Amino acid sequence: MFDITNSVIAITGASSGIGAATARLLATRGARVVLGARRTERLQSLVDEIRARGGNANAVALDVTQRDDVEAFIAHAAGLHGRIDVLVNNAGVMPLSRLEALRVDEWERTLDVNVKGVLYGIAACLPRMKAQGRGHIVNVASIGAHRSYPGAAVYCASKFAVWAISEALRLEHLGGELRVTTVSPGTTESELSDHITDAAAAAAMKQFRAVTIDAAAIARAIVYALEQPSDVSVSEVIVRPTRSPD
Ligand SMILES: NC(=O)c1ccc[n+]([C@@H]2O[C@H](COP(=O)([O-])OP(=O)(O)OC[C@H]3O[C@@H](n4cnc5c(N)ncnc54)[C@H](OP(=O)(O)O)[C@@H]3O)[C@@H](O)[C@H]2O)c1
User: Fold this and answer.
1) CA–centroid distance, residue 36 to ligand 1 (Å)
2) Distance of CA 132 to CAs 41, 79, 108, 170, 172, Å?
3) What is the Cα Rg of the chain in Å?
4) Does the active-site annotation cover 120?
5) By CB distance 3.0 to 4.6 Å, which of 21, 26, 148, 206 could disulfide with 219?
């Protein structure tokens, strides 16, 4: 089994929701977590909480739409601990609206964060993981990577892209030095839908998200994928509420 204890794990979008829950669980399991997001005060209070419980955590200001930021984030993690074992590419946004609303700025932001952010994370980690001879990249996609919904065209497109990128990355590295996992959550408790600006989409989301699971459920799926023996690749996990189709 891969030993999570002392492993160096960078998590993007760790200031709330799934990223924060993953940081908490991995720190409890003894990982050295390096947390990135834009809201640094939220990151710092999570770092303080983890350290108060005896865990090892550090925070870095990170905007995943900036390639230099992502490179600096991974360089910081590797510089602190001498290597980078795992990247959890988790940062994401979901400003939903129907296409006819023409919220083109939000389309661009969705693709910048959800797709380019993931690619920048891969670009920062791949050379380091190849040089180390091992590494694991976990990309957080969505049930929206498997089907598309009205009002979620661009979000689903971004998550289809994350799925496609992950699968090609996995197939490009069958030699064993890199493992790749796509984690696709269903409706999960977080702040994701708080930032929807379109009134109709926000109302529809309230109904869609009537049943959610705790973000810790997604964190447990990530831990499951990480701790498998090196010859086992958990290439995808879909985790959704029992009582919801999504
Ligand atoms: N919750 C669900 O139902 C659900 C379902 C399927 C997939 N997902 C996916 O799960 C992932 C985590 O989302 P969540 O549900 O936990 O929502 P959340 O609570 O809103 O968390 C999103 C995280 O992404 C970060 N983020 C957003 N833009 C960023 C940027 N430009 N640079 C760096 N970090 C950025 C946010 O931090 P800052 O704002 O501080 O930067 C925050 O930490 C996302 O990829 C989302 O698409 C969630």
Assistant:
1) 11
2) 33, 14, 35, 17, 17
3) 17
4) no
5) 21
For 139, the enclosing helix (H) or strand (E) is: strand 136-140
Tell me the domains of the chain and their CATH numbers. 8-237 (3.40.50.720)
pLDDT score at 173 = 96
d(CA 19, ligand 1 centre) in Å: 7
For 107-120, the three-class secondary structure string (H helix, E strand, C coil) is HHHHHHHHHHHHHH
Are 118 and 139 in contact, with CB atoms under 8 Å apart?
yes
- Angle 91-97-98 from CA coordinates, rounded to 5°: 135
Q: Give 203 Cα–ligand 1 centroid separation in angstroms.
A: 20
Residues having CB within 6 Å of any atom of ligand 1:
12-19, 37-39, 62-65, 90-94, 113, 140, 142, 185, 187-188, 190-192, 215
Query: H or E segment at 132?
Result: helix 117-132
Among 11, 90, 143, name the best residue to mutate to test ligand 1's pocket (greatest count of ligand atoms within 8 A of Cβ): 90
> pLDDT at position 8, please?
98
| Ligand 1: nearest atom to the Cα of 209 | 3
The string of pLDDT tens digits covering residues 165-205 is 999 999 999 999 999 999 999 999 999 999 999 999 999 99
C-alpha 227 – ligand 1 centre gap (Å) = 24
Query: Model pTM?
Result: 0.98
SS3 call for 28: helix
